Every structure is written in C-alpha cells, then in structure tokens.
Amino acid sequence: MSITDRIKRTSAESPVYAKFCVYGQSGTGKTTLAATLPTPFVISAEGGLLSLRGADIPYVEIKTIDEMREAFVFLSSPDAAHIESVVIDSISEIAEIVLATEKARMVNGKPIDPRQAYGATQEAIVSMIRAFSGMSKHLLVIAKCEKTQDEAGRLLYQPAMVGQKLGQQLPYMFDFLFALRNEKDTEGNVVRYLQTRTDGLWQAKERGGYVAAVETPDLGEIIKKLGV
Length: 228
Description:
Blueprint: H1 3-6, E1 19-24, E2 40-44, E3 59-61, H2 65-75, E4 85-89, H3 91-103, E5 106-107, E6 110-111, H4 114-133, E7 138-149, E8 155-159, H5 164-169, E9 176-184, E10 190-195, E11 205-206, E12 214-215, H6 219-226
Parallel strand pairs: 1-7, 1-9, 2-3, 2-4, 4-7
Antiparallel strand pairs: 5-6, 7-8, 9-10, 9-11, 10-12
Helix pairs in contact: 3-4
C-alpha cells in the first residue's frame, strides 16, 4: 500500500471508545453515573452500591490488587464480550490498596523504603489505567475529590490520588476529565452537572470540542455526542 493510500483526514478523527475520569465531592452521585453507560460492569473498591440498586448492574468487589487483576482478565475474556462499559469505583481507593500492599512488602528482610512504595504504586496504577483503557469498551474511572489552597487562599479542586506525582499525572491519562458538581441556583434548587472545562478552580478538560462546558450528568448522551 502506497503512502497516498494511507493518507487520512484529521476531520474524520473521533474516539473509538470513550474513556472518562470523573471526580467530585462526596454525595454528588459519582457512582450513579454508571447507570447512564451502555451495558456497564462495575469494579467496586468502595462498597455500598445501594444508589445503583434500581439499575440491576453486575459488579464485583475488590479488596486486593490480585482481585483487580482477576477482574481485568474476566473483562478481557469472551465471557465479557457483551459488556460495553467498565466502571472503576474508585481509582483513589484502589491506589490506597496498592500503596498499603507496597508498604507491607519486605526487601531483604527489611520494610521497603516509603519512597519506593509510592513509586511502585504510581507504576502499578498507571499500568492498570493503560491496560483498562486499551480494552474495546467504554471506561469510566471515578476518583475522589481533593481540595488544595493556592497562595491567594482560593480553594482548588482536583482528583484525589496518593502521592503528588500520581495526582498530577492522572488527568493527562484521559481525554475527558470531568468534575461532577452539585450547586444551588438562584432559587436555591440543587443543580447537578458535569463540568468539562477548567474554570481555574475546578480541574477539567475535554479534547476535541465535542461537548459543552457544562453537561447533564448522562455519559450515555455524551457518548452519542462523541459519535462512538
């Protein structure tokens, strides 16, 4: 095949599968986003999926990194071919599990250096996200929310992760990083929405201009907008 036969147009570029990272404060309903995805399967490290009871979604609880690997093997198998979307709830909790495992590891009969534990955790989580992102399925990675304060005293919001390096790296591993927010309107009614672009306080991004700056918290509808 000649190079002229291989030339493509950037205007035709679109995601094959949607890979989302969504974070938000406790109580905003992050887990319920799973019900808006096509045929989802939930990997839960948080427990307590009562908010999804009415949706009858299959899930597995994981408490160890080995159980996480087992979930990946299952979802990569023909038995999971009917599953269109994978939900990891939450990556913040899974990172804590990995870090605890690494800290408990012994090297030459001595506890591992904490810096090595954080480094190993970073490598494990990055590899895990890349592996799940490589699946021919939509992916929703849920993260807790972390608040920091800048020099001007403003509160800044971003996905919560163990270790500063991993926290900084996480947003760059996704084309779509959304903040799920509950805010009151002028009449005092609570409005729930996805913020898709940063406003200087809440970290968010979307590549390609597929979605509006504020979206209804329905990932199925966003997937339609992406054309995948």
